[in-house]
From TrEMBL:
InterPro entries hit by this protein: LS, LS/RS, LS/RS_sf
Sequence similarity: Belongs to the DMRL synthase family.
Keyword line: Riboflavin biosynthesis, Transferase
Enzyme class: transferase
Active-site residues, as the UniProt record annotates them: H91
Reactions it catalyzes: (2S)-2-hydroxy-3-oxobutyl phosphate + 5-amino-6-(D-ribitylamino)uracil = 6,7-dimethyl-8-(1-D-ribityl)lumazine + phosphate + 2 H2O + H(+)
Native species: Thermosporothrix hazakensis
HAMAP family (UniProt xref): Lumazine_synth (MF_00178)
Protein name, as recorded: 6,7-dimethyl-8-ribityllumazine synthase
Biological process according to GO: riboflavin biosynthetic process
């Protein structure tokens, strides 16, 4: 058993409905991340018409609109994209912690995958280096939606 490989995740996004929320604050970062996320979702088979995108002013606002989207029961998973950068005060810590906790609570309360795509960076260069994470966000959304479907339908 010690040489076992991890199970291969289901990466087939066909038939899934994915909601994406993106913060406009730090748009050069979040917009580029959004583009990569959408490209990867489509590469995984999620139909363009099955991807719904809404924007919010900043990362702190993501949980409220995510809750509204989850209440609609239209989405197999949500991806929440934001970028919180360190400043001269601790505001970045407050925003990032509150956002992460709010999104996790929603995932558990609504029993739907909510992908935390809120990057926290100390510098612009660090944030730019993490834009590629949009690909990971898309893959995580598809994998989690499929895993949840499999578990719920194969009791």
């Amino acid at each position: 058993m010690k040489h076992m490989l991890p199970p291969t995740p289901d990466k087939n996004g066909s038939g899934l409905s994915i909601g994406i929320l993106v913060a406009r604050y730090n748009w050069p970062i979040t917009g580029a991340t959004l583009a990569l996320t959408c490209e990867e979702l489509q590469r995984l088979g999620v139909a363009e018409h099955a991807i719904t995108i809404h924007s919010v002013p900043g990362s702190f606002e993501l949980p409220l609109l995510a809750q509204t989207m989850l209440q609609s029961k239209r989405y197999d998973a949500l991806i929440c994209i934001g970028c919180v950068m360190k400043g001269e005060t601790r505001h970045d810590v407050i925003v990032s912690d509150a956002t992460a906790q709010g999104l996790m609570r929603l995932a558990l309360d609504y029993q739907r995958p909510v992908i935390l795509g809120v990057m926290c960076a100390e510098t612009q260069a660090q944030a730019e280096a993490r834009i590629e994470r949009g690909i990971e966000y898309a893959r995580a959304a598809v994998e989690m939606a499929r895993a949840q479907q499999h578990l719920l339908h194969n009791k």
